[in-house]
TrEMBL record:
Gene Ontology CC: cytosol
Organism: Liquorilactobacillus hordei DSM 19519
Superkingdom of the organism of origin: Bacteria
PROSITE patterns xrefs: HTH_RRF2_2
One Pfam family recorded for the sequence: Rrf2
GO MF term list: DNA-binding transcription factor activity
Name under which the protein is recorded: Transcription regulator
Listed InterPro entries: Tscrpt_reg_Rrf2, WH-like_DNA-bd_sf, WH_DNA-bd_sf
Length: 151
């Protein structure tokens, strides 16, 4: 089952970058994520621990620790503390069946290749890239819909 933690951590960094001169409480950031402030603070703690975010207790002014063009999706992925690969092979297959016996090994080979390719791409995409795309999409939606949310 998919995990959306990476998406949420990227969301937080992009939101902070796009509102870098605003007062940003965990409540405000949580409202953009459609979650609760407590969970948002925990996620921000992950980003802080990964040296991607700087916060000051009691002050609503989180800042990116580096320029957004220097923070990659891979950096954020590593902040999720991945303890397992993106794709996991089911090892609990029948050893009595020829397919069940060999499929974990065969799939593992392909999954490792997919993991390597994905991580290489993650190293190329930055928070600045994503923030630029978000800004363009917002502008597009604002032109086409005057009621578009401004959170």
């Amino acid at each position: 089952m998919a995990n959306n933690r990476l998406s949420d951590l990227i969301h937080i960094l992009v939101y902070i970058e796009m509102h870098n001169s605003d007062k940003l409480t965990s409540e405000l950031i949580a409202s953009s994520l459609n979650t609760n402030p407590s969970l948002t603070r925990r996620m921000m703690g992950q980003l802080r621990k990964a040296n991607l975010l700087e916060t000051t207790q009691g002050a609503a002014c989180p800042k990116l620790k580096r320029d957004p063009s220097e923070i990659t999706i891979f950096d954020v992925y590593m902040a999720t503390c991945p303890d397992s690969p993106l794709l996991k092979v089911d090892q609990n297959t029948s050893k009595e069946c020829q397919v069940g016996h060999v499929i974990p090994t065969v799939l593992n080979k392909y999954y490792l290749e997919i993991q390597s390719t994905t991580e290489a791409k993650m190293r190329k995409v930055t928070i600045a890239d994503i923030a630029d795309d978000v800004k363009m999409d917002i502008e597009h939606h604002q032109k086409n819909n005057s009621n578009f949310a401004k959170i």
